[in-house]
Amino acid sequence: MSVITTSVFDLFKIGPGPSSSHTIGPMKAAFDFRQRIGQLPTGVQQQASAIHIHLYGSLSATGKGHGTDRAVVAGLLGWQPETTDPVALLALLKDPTVTYPVMVGDEPIHVGPHSLHFERKRYDSPYANTMVLRLTAGEQTLAEEEYYSIGGGFIIRKGEPENGPVAASVPYPYSTMNELKAHLKNGLSLDNLLMANEMALTGRTRADINARIDQLLEFMHKAVRRGLRHKGILPGSIRLSRKAPVLYQQAKTMANSSDSFLIFLNAYCLAASEENAAGGIVVTAPTSGASGVIPGLTYLARHHFHYDRATLRAGMLAAAMIGFLVKHNASISGAEMGCMGEIGTASAMGAAFLTRCAQPTGSIETIEAAAEIGIEHHLGMTCDPIGGYVQIPCIERNAMGAVKAYNAFLLATSGAASFQKISLDAVIKVMKATGRDMSTKYKETSEAGLALSATEC
């Protein structure tokens, strides 16, 4: 099996909501296509008359609700997720008569709603979320690229391996939890192992990596703070009201109640998730649809548990390690695994974060137990968003995933971690098999489950 060579900063990406697989991934794919057609011979560029984007699978089924059309246009215009203005992104394609000039050589090609094709027919592809971009001259195709959006904003271009053209080498290679634990038997700490691999992958210094993790936390917490302030109705036809500010005010009036702790945590998770649903800037953790779990827990850890920056960084590395293992051995994509791939993974990552923060020595067995419990109790969870919007049930599921993460942490640190019968590697295998067996109706297509209750909203 290939070695994990994913960077912390590939797993945790900064970008606009509401969906990493439907927004960030397609934006990156369209930007890549823009770069490639910009390198075509001048003679080919001069023939070009149109750009066509064909969306398949869940990108077609729920793409409009997720903003895939806007994301593709943004990518073709040269926008990138980390620097995108969410207000400007939401404005794209609002007027169906407006087109947008994409420079191909010295001439603009105008793209708009006519350029986007939400294909309902089945497409022979190894991944559920597929997009095909074509540069054409009349009926003639001048250039074509096929991309797969595999969750968490990760994309693969057809013909390239998942890890890119050349996989980087790391000092402590592993592909499973058992292989990772084997490196730790000789006194190496989990923190040092993960940091050494990250330094090798990115070429960055320890200080730079720490600073970038701090930046990720700050972006997460900015989303929480914005969500705690913003009131009103979320975008889309559901007209769902924001709840986070109400919950937050309620929690502050119940400071002496045993319930206030959970209400604060729920408010923080809903706040970040509602910002994601509104198309605001969030951090994939590991996806945009699950971008309320880790931000809520880390906000709680900083402001209620008062952990210092070094502790929070160590917790983030542990969380990333769990995300790596799930992505490598199953999937973090709702279109592949259902919601267990998104909220289930986020909950397991959150449990690992809390466990590492609470234990200075970072016992790998306890971290593993917490993550395993987090995944185990999300197995089979469907992804059935109403109207294709990342709102119902997605927003509340972020809060529920965080509460489960906290309970998994409590169970794992109760002194009984050694009694755990199911390993993390085993539960990830079960997760993959469950996702494979799950009907596609329950994997981000809005064709079954809660999605069918849309008429009642």
Automatic annotation (TrEMBL):
Pathway the protein takes part in: Carbohydrate biosynthesis; gluconeogenesis
Cofactor(s) this protein requires: [4Fe-4S] cluster
Alphabetical list of InterPro entries matching this protein: ASB_dom_sf, Fe-S_L-Ser, Fe-S_L-Ser_mono, Ser_deHydtase-like_asu, Ser_deHydtase_bsu
Recorded catalytic activity of this chain's protein: L-serine = pyruvate + NH4(+)
EC number: 4.3.1.17
GO BP field: gluconeogenesis
GO molecular function terms listed in the Swiss-Prot or TrEMBL record: 4 iron, 4 sulfur cluster binding; L-serine ammonia-lyase activity; metal ion binding
Alphabetical list of Pfam families matching this protein: SDH_alpha (PF03313), SDH_beta (PF03315)
Gene3D superfamilies (alphabetical): D-3-phosphoglycerate dehydrogenase, domain 3
Domain of life (superkingdom): Bacteria
UniProt xrefs under SUPFAM superfamilies: Serine metabolism enzymes domain (SSF143548)
NCBIfam families reported in the protein's UniProt record: sda_mono
Family: Belongs to the iron-sulfur dependent L-serine dehydratase family.
Protein name as it appears in the record: L-serine dehydratase
Gene source species: Spirosoma montaniterrae
